[in-house]
Structure formats: C-alpha cells, structure tokens
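All the exercises in this workshop are built on plain-text protein records. A record pairs a protein's sequence with a compact description of its fold. The structure tokens are whole numbers drawn from a learned vocabulary of backbone shapes. Once this layout is familiar, the rest of the handout is easier to follow. An example says more than a description, so a record of this kind follows.
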Amino acid sequence: MWKSDVFAVNGQSSPLTKAVNWNLVEDIDDILHFKKGQYIYFQGSSPQGIFIIKNGTVKISRNACNGKEFVVKIASDGHMFGHISLLNHSRYNNSAVALEDTTVLFIHKTNFLETIKKQEGLFEHFIQQLCSHIIKIEQKATNMAYKPVRGRLAQLLLSLDNQLNNDSTDEEIPHSLFMTRADMAGLIGTVKETVNRILSEFRQEGIIDTNGTKIYILNAKKLLEISHLYD
C-alpha cells in the first residue's frame, strides 16, 4: 500500500531510506500533509512511528532550559526523521516543524520495528548512521568553538545549497535558499542580527544576492574559501 510513493521522493533519499528494503515493509501507514509552520511532533511527546519527507522541508530543533531554540538540522526530500527516539524507546528530545508546505510518509512503530527484525544488517546500518550523526555534532561543536561566525555562515550556506538544490543541473542559474534569519542563526549558534550583518557583507562583496528572505548564491567558490579560512 503506497509503496510506490516511497520510491518517488523526487529521486532523492538519505542513507537510511536507501538501506531499507521497502518490499518488506507491510504498509506505508499514511501520507500526511503539513502547512508551513505546522508542527509534525513536539518535544516531549511519545513517538508513534517514523517519518520520511516526500517533498518539503522540516526543521528539527529543541528548546533549552533557558527557552532558547537550538536548531539541530534541516531535513528535506527523502530524509527520515523521528527514528532515533523511537529506537531508544524515549520521548522526543526535539520538535519537528514544516518550514514550507510539506508531505511526509508515516510508518507506524510496530510496522517499522518488524521491518528492522526482518532485514539482516539494517540495525547495524542504523548504528553506523548514528555514529555518523555523532561525528557531525562533534564537528559542529568544534566549529562553534573555534570558527568565526563568518566562516560558519559561509559553511551553512554551502551545506543548505548542496542539500536543497542538489537536483539542479544548470550552473548558470544562481541557486536560491529560503530560510528565516532566525533559523540560520539557530543552526550556527549566533543571533539574527549577526546573520543579517554578515549576509549584508556577503552581498556587498558580490558573493550572494538577496530578495526578501530569499538568498541567491552567486559565488560558491568564495563561500568555500571563507568556510575553510580558519580550518
């Protein structure tokens, strides 16, 4: 039921979704549609299953004890999320919200856990991906500790461009990014005002252009140089 939808995720998938033999999944339990700004789940709620983005963009974030939001990652087409808390038998330690109108595939936890039991080596693959996730978190912590905000923002723009525009083949057309300055600040551990100031500098230097909340990357090579300047 609806398995064809899994394979039609705009030709994209994460390493986890590639690793799953979807022919062994009994059902895709539902196709869910979320409007921009609508929460998919809340921090502290109990996992009922896992989600795969068919199309759209989702922000994964958590609130610190001081009330500040820490953006963990931005997930896009083909990415699976909500599985870590499910496998850990714990409540969600983060929230997921749609950054644009988004469609996700939902697999109930019983169905998903049965799939893991059936597929030899799949759980090991989850462990590998978890280790990869930890390495990325360590790298992010190192960047926040030692890399100036200018370098962190350049790195973020390149990362988002690679993730959100990786199906674009026309290098003559500037890639565009759509994200609030507050979310960008949350991803690199700074404040919105600093992001605005550095984006203004990048624009004056001809590296990017902006139109409202949209950012157009004009010189990815220069962003790469800035991101590696303090490595």
Summary: The domain at 3-127 is CATH 2.60.120.10 (Jelly Rolls). The longest strand covers residues 49-55. The first helix runs from residue 3 to 6.
